[in-house]
Amino acid sequence: MALLLSRYFVHLLWLLAFVHASPLAGNSEAHEVGVTLAKFHASSTAVMSECQMLDPSPSLTQFVDSLTFPPLINLSSSSGISDESVLTIGAYKIIQKLHRDLPPTPMYAFGTSQKTASVPGPTLLGTQDVEAHLRWENHIRDETHMFVVDDSLHWARPPDGGVPIVVHLHGAEVASASDGHPDAWFTFNATDTGTTFSTLEHRYSNEQPPTALWYHDHAIGITRLNVAAGLSGVYIISSPDEQKILPIGLPLVIQDKQFYENGEINFPMVGVLPDYHLNWCAEYFGDTMLVNGKIWPFLKVLPRAYRFRLLNACNARFLILSLDNPQMHFLQIGTDGGLLHEPWNLTSLTMAPAERVDVIIDFSKLSNGASVILNNSGPTPFPSGDISQMPAKTYAVLKFIVDEDNGITDGVLHEFETANVNVSSLLIDQKPISEEDAVVSRMLGVVEWDDSNHMPMTFTLDNRTWQDDVTQYPMEGTTEIWELMNLRINAHPIHIHLVQFRVLNQQTFSNRSFELGTCSVNIAYGENGSCYTEPPRDPYIYQRGWKDTVITWPNVVTRVLIRFTQRNGLPFKFDPSEGPGYAWHCHIVDHEDNVMMRPFVVTANESLRALSRNMVSKCKDV
């Protein structure tokens, strides 16, 4: 099919292959890996497809339902689990009331039982350096998914039917057998299992610094369906030292969905290119905003400062969050990987799908009865979409109401000054990561393949798909630079399993000159023949700190510095070379399901590392 389409639709096909053998500064061992990239017709404007133009949701009044919070399970308390016991969490089919005026909605949900299952799932609280032992079970009895599965995609295809799931703890330093490998899926009672399935029981060492992670389904080819159906939740790692300074905080899980009059979720059933992918749609954008499973809720707060743990759990929607009171701001104290060395005062928060932000909002200067709305102005698609075309109600997300008598007490900072102090005391065991330590740099293309009408057909990373052979074999204990080269007009959030990394820099390049082959990304900015249009610049402020998901901007090379160790620089306390390996992928899960995902294997084998370091990509048939 791809070959047939290429004969009719290719406006421009360009190929580039290169090997750059110049050593990285300070390390004579380093080499840049070769890369070959290919792309269909380029476009300069965002195009919305018919599959994204769903019937609008019923009209629902905003801010009539109180925000709720998922149940909290302390994994290290006496009522939770110990080193020798297991907490069982299952996936169930439930109905949940999302809005006062909307009938209950069928969903898939996590919980310790059918009765307690909720969307989002329970918030799991782990203690740093105390291992948690969880058993994930599948109790979804549906013979087919509640949404239409596109059989043209590479997906689980259980022989006996059912709804495959596998749980990934996003952001965790974890052995690959417990990582939620996409091919380790299993159906109801593990009747059918994927090729890398080994166990329902996952061990989480919780050895990384305090932070907010999240768990979600990761089954190959249907992650977008399972996440949209409700299979996700928050996982917090805390420590006694952190809790001396800060409360655990309140999770705010933000999603967008579309609904039918009967309360069911409206998810695309017809594909963007039905002749190619019958049911797959490139991005799912709902016209209704949810927080913690409630549609446009309100939250009563005291006139105090609160800690919030924000998660963008949307399939594809980027968020630009702000408060409608110009006198208020966000005090950001943490990112994906944990606390920052110093807080940042921000008037807006840009969040890609899967990113977490740790913030403090101070309501102490507001009078009783005052309200503040948390708004979103992120365009769809991002950043090229036309914000004026967004459904009007998707601007609002959540309403805070100051109530001196009935405000929520959880998450309150009793001494706000402690939030403004330097939190470096919690980071003293963190070994800095240095560019000079890098032993290899990999140029990796982030590519969308379109037809002549700019409609997306498929996506690749480094011109390869999930099914292609492994080409990244980083060696445990080493540091690498991954140069993520976004060749399209929209941003892609790239998530790398196992590790936290730092964004080194970003650099724009001329996509047009690059695709014509008249310049090279191996030539430094300012020299003849360079593709770069500016010198490398520091990452945006919201991309600093430790990250596991990074926004790769269009026509920009985003360089990330990855050390394949624990955050503190010490070896993992498990063998990362055992098991099926890890993944890196776009976290627009609709793209991930259309093979925008690649495997990588951590190795202790020098010969494999050398093979990976010097490998030149092969041109793919189109």
From TrEMBL:
Domain of life: Eukaryota
Range of residues in the leader sequence: 1-21
CDD domains xrefs: CuRO_1_BOD_CotA_like, CuRO_2_CotA_like
Keyword NADP: no
Plastocyanin-like domain mapped to chain residues: 164-240, 460-604
Family statement drawn from the similarity comment of this UniProt entry: Belongs to the multicopper oxidase family.
Entry protein name: Uncharacterized protein
